[in-house]
Design goal:
Blueprint lengths: L10 H15 L5 H11 L2 E6 L6 E4 L5 E6 L4 H18 L6 E4 L5 H14 L2 H10 L4 H8 L3 H10 L4
Helix pairs in contact: 1-4, 2-3, 3-4, 6-7
The structure holds zinc ion (ZN).
Length: 162
């Protein structure tokens, strides 16, 4: 029998999950506040690594988890990385069984974690409205959502705005 963690998600499934989580935990314009709120509320730990491992999620098996981010990346990139790792936490783990997620290429889980992160940080409807207001200026849109210009540009492309 397939387990929860073998589940296949549609983009719509993931958007719905991310949207619910955003509503529950994001209450300011600063995405880092929301991300830290999720981590804290789920007994997670955010750790900065000066070597390896970097950009990983470790489910510890006692219903807590550790997200590791590299020491030498920009805060804006870290926002996306943390949201991505939380995607694995919500989509791909049962949140109890010890397991590690590394950023290792282009498998389906990586794609799904990126969809989750994009929806969590840049919800489609709000993003489209904001892009229109800001005349599709990627830097201004990025600043509004507290993400990197690269992340905003990818989102614009996915949503067919550029
Ligand atoms: Zn990943």
């Amino acid at each position: 029998m397939p387990t929860l963690t073998d589940r296949q998600y549609s983009k719509k499934n993931i958007a719905d999950i991310a949207s619910k989580i955003r509503q529950e935990y994001f209450s300011t314009e600063n995405p880092m506040d929301g991300l830290l709120n999720i981590i804290k509320s789920n007994r997670g730990i955010l750790e900065v690594s000066f070597g390896v491992p970097k950009e990983t999620l470790r489910i510890r098996g006692d219903e807590s988890f550790v997200i590791t981010i590299p020491a030498n990346t920009s805060p804006l990139r870290d926002v996306f990385t943390i949201a991505h790792e939380l995607g694995h936490y919500y989509l791909h783990s049962d949140q109890r069984t010890p397991e590690s997620f590394n950023r290792d290429g282009t498998n389906q889980r990586e794609t799904e974690a990126n969809w989750f992160a994009a929806e969590l940080l840049m919800p489609a409807e709000k993003f489209k409205k904001t892009a229109e207001e800001l005349q599709n200026d990627p830097q201004k849109i990025a600043a509004k959502f507290g993400v990197s210009g690269a992340a905003a540009r990818v989102r614009m492309s996915v949503l067919g705005l550029i």
